[in-house]
Amino acid sequence: MRAIPKWVEKIHDSSEKSDVASIHSICYHPEGLQLVVGAGDKVLVYDPLDGNLINSLKGHKDTVYCVAYAKDGKKFASGSADKTVIIWTQKLEGLLKYSHNDSIQCLAFNPISHQLASCAVSDFSFWSSEQKAVQKYKSAARINACAWTNDGQYIALGLANGTISIRNKAGEEKIKIDRPGGTNSPVFGLAWNPPATSGSSDILCVIDWAQTLSFYSLGGQMIGKERNFGFDPLCLTFFPNGEFLIVAGCNKALQLFTRDGIRLGLLGEQHDSWIWNAAVHPAGNCVVVGCQDGTLGCYTLAFNTVHALYRERYAFRENMCDVIIQHLVSGQKVRIKCRDLVHKIAIYRNRLAVQLPERVVLYELSSAENQPMHYKVKEKIAKKFDCSLLVVCAQHLVLCQEKKLQSLDFNGVLQREWMMDSFIRYIKVTGGPAGREGLLLGLKSGQVWRIFLDNSLPILVTTVLSSVRCLDLNASRTKLAVVDDAGRLVVRDLIADTMLYQDSSVNSVAWNTHLESMLCYSHTTGGLSVRVGSLPPRSPQTMLGVVVGLCGATAFCLRGNVMSNVPLALGATMWQFVEAGLFEDAYQVACLGVPMSDWEGLAQAALDALNYQVARDAYVKVRNLPWLELIGDLKERQKRGETSKEVLLAETYAFAGKYKDAARLYQKSGNNSKALAMYSDLRMFDLAQEFLKEGSAADRKELIRRRAEWACSVHEPRAAAELLLSAGEPERAIEIVAEQGWADVLLDIGRRLAASEKAPLELIASHLRRLKALPLAAEIYRKLGEEEQVVQLHVEARDWPEAFRLAEHLPKVLPSIHFQHAQWLAESDQFISAHEAYILAGKPHEATKLLRNLVECAVSEERYLDAGYYTWLRAKQALKLLGDAQKTLDANNSAVADYRSLLKLSSIYYAYNTINAYLKEPFTSSPPLTLFNTSRFVVNQINGTLPPKGISLFAVYYTLSKQAKVLGANKLHLQINNKLQSLKIPAGIQEQVDISYISSRACPGGFNDPEELLPMCYKCSNYSPHLHGNRCPNCQQEYVFSYVSFEILPLAEFAPEAGISELDAERLLLAPPKSAAYDQQDQFIQEDIIDTYPSTLDRDALRAIDPREVIIVRGPAPLATRYYRNLLPELQITVCSECNQVFHSEDFELQFLQKGHCPFCRSTDESLMN
């Protein structure tokens, strides 16, 4: 810091011009508007700007020892040896005067309440405008100084006996501080640290005549250590910001200290006499000194800038003792407290050198690039160096003193020395390997030298006309920029050793660390110019200060001691390259930082020049995906050479919205269709029509088609359809109308079309069919002559009668109609009808598949009547599949075998239904004999083979066992229980089975069965065992069962002799019976026939049988008719003509009345009741 004289005045005593008026006190107006000086017995008021005397206030009769201004600036006070205190207004008018018992020594206004404290030799008092009288308090010793705390709650008094008394506003002593020297250390000055730095705590600074400087807290504790300054102090004052303080006195000079008491040195030159008082301007930019010899001097304070810059890191001195390292891009700051005056700073890469008065401290950056900065001490060189410039490198410290340059290692040992011919003005580290870095030296003579730390020989680079002010080397070290004291900028190519360009009125220059071809320089008249390559610079950018660095798009500018970041307006520079067609260079400039609008402009300009690489890179920066997709497509097409430059440029214009330009380029390249497609996509049909005024008919037709598509997209389907019809595209028109569901419009279009236009007519018909407008579709199909489709329409409408009526004349279509009818019936759960329809459709396999699925479903659901019925239908179908030519086949034919197998299976399911109902339902209407006969029938039908699916052999045996026990068939009961032991018994009834088994083996009545329960063959009159099948083991006649109670019917089967046709046999059997006189006897009742009835009868025997006893069972073709004689005519028997099953007439009638059909085949023929 330097003190530059602003104005100086010598004040004389008014009575005797030869005598000087000693200046004991000075104070500033709080806003620096006035300077109040106590000189002699007068109070002088000066203009602090120029030192002109404003007024001389007379009111005291003796020497004025102290003056003080209130914080609000409305009044000030003066105290004199005449024991009086005078209060003055800001307008320099006397307001109040009061007195003490002794001379006044010091004054202080409360900064908050503006209460005035006046201190005399033996007492002190408080005065305020609100008080009627002045309150006075005694003091134990002479009061030399006083000061209020920042909050105005306490006042500190400095006494001549070496004591500091801290009192409250009521004058009560709260804290007493005794100085170590006692009366030998009278306190002569004290001040509280201003609130700008002290924060919430008040720190009291004290000076005494023991020549020490001390600091205390409000509680009286000493802070830090006492510091000796070697002279008797007379005044103490803080700077307004609290960072520095000034002590002056018998040393005749101003001594500058930090707020922590660190001595920084003298401020200004030494005076001729003691300095009684010094005051710092409220702005902190100047200081006024009052001396014993009447000298009043005002000095402007100038703080020297101590700083260094390396790329983005800027190191500078703050508060004279601290070093701040600031990252100019991220804004991060690191403070290093040196606790001593910082003379020089140097920074390079990860090194930082700080020169202090007695040593040099070297720091190292220990953090990574992307981490917070952290510097730690690496080395300390405990030597005092006198140098004008300081440079640090990776392993060396470089000192410059006028013409001499020295290189030292970090231990302070001299490594190399260079002596130049002229004063060294500027040093620039250009980088290089550690220990071999290169330096550029700018001399006062204008020479620029290059040296290397490992080489003693300097190299002359260039010479400018006057002293070098600053210089810089670009990143590739191929270009040098030098600015001299005349303001000339010279840029040279070091490789070719030629001057590239020069400029004038320049005070500083810097190359860009990110772009080696860019430099910026500041002008002496203000402003910043940017120059890239060989292009001339644009008009300077507004900037105050000098440029010291350039990183990317940010220039680092120093103004005074403040470093600021100045963003460069690189858009204009970028556009220079764009205008010159240098898009790659423009892109490099843009990468440093330009607005998004400039990026888009660069991308568009590159596209217009068909420079797709730069355009793509620019659009990547702005993240414009649509343009990137277009560029990728255009680049690929350009690479393949498929399209001309005009087409590529037209694509770009169209994408950018320059449609007319694009259309002209398309037309120029002979691609009218692309222009038409563009206008159509944009719905600019009027422009397209104007464009196609001279176009071909095909293009105009294409335009109409596209316009129709647009009309469709904007929900104008009727207009779109009309346009398409006029364009000759009826199919597309039909599709549009069909999407709207307009059946009447479709019919109208169909009527307008000729019958030869089959494709559109078929399309109309298909859409009408989809829209369920079947009559309209039928009209179109008739127009096409497709009667089959008309029939199909009735099928889709499920109008089956009409469909069959129309299909009668179309034999090829009829099976298909039957098949669709069958599918519909199956979906409608009309399975029997569906089965018949499948047969009519010639799809027997489908019919069989349907019945098989029905049987499986019925069995899984335990609907055994349905299962038997569906199985019987399968058996019936198996015979129907045989043609007339197969009627003569014998019974062993495979179809007949299938029939009989299925018929047997159907009878098992039919009979098992009664057993299942008996076991599953809580009550049953079937008597025990019926259950006995039924279960025995099922057992004999299965007859040792595997039971059919869904049939439980255990259930059959279990039912038969229980009924045998009830009916007294003990032998059968035992047989069945023995069989049950070999079967898997369901859970829950094991105990019942075991009990039944035990009881069957312990039958008291003997093991025999009643004869009436045994199966009897009515043909041979023999009884057979229960479980020997459903055929007589003697005569092999099958038992004929009643299909309700499953009793064996009294029927004996016979057959006509060979040669008697079925028709003749039926005629003979149904003829009225002959009279008794007829000599032919009935062979069934001849006495000589005992064991068996005859199986074959001749004509006479047939004629002799009473027709009322004959039962004829006409088997379905190709099975032959079977004949039976009822041996018990009084027992009425009924035969179902549909299924040929035989019933007791009473049982059949009851079942028919209950169910309305035959219990087995479900035939509803009323003739069955007759």
Task: Explain what this protein looks like in three dimensions.
With 1170 residues, the protein is of the alpha+beta class. It has six domains: 2-302, YVTN repeat-like/Quinoprotein amine dehydrogenase (Methylamine Dehydrogenase, Chain H, 7 Propeller); 304-385, Thrombin, subunit H; 464-568, TolB, C-terminal domain (Neuraminidase, 6 Propeller); 579-642; 844-1015, Serine Threonine Protein Phosphatase 5, Tetratricopeptide repeat, CATH 1.25.40; 1017-1072 and 1088-1168, no CATH class. Helix content is 30%, strand content 29%. It has 30 helices and 62 strands. The strands form 17 sheets. The chain has a four-stranded antiparallel beta sheet with strand order 1-28-27-26, with no helix packed on it. A four-stranded antiparallel beta sheet has the order 2-3-4-5, with no helix packed on it. A hairpin with a 4-residue loop joins strand 8 (84-89) and strand 9 (94-99). The chain is elongated, with a radius of gyration of 65 Å. Residues 572-952 form the Intraflagellar transport protein 122 homolog TPR domain. Residues 307-563 form the IFT122 second beta-propeller domain.
Features:
single chain, 1170 residues, alpha+beta, Methylamine Dehydrogenase, Chain H, Neuraminidase, 6 domains, 4-stranded antiparallel beta sheet, 30 helices, elongated
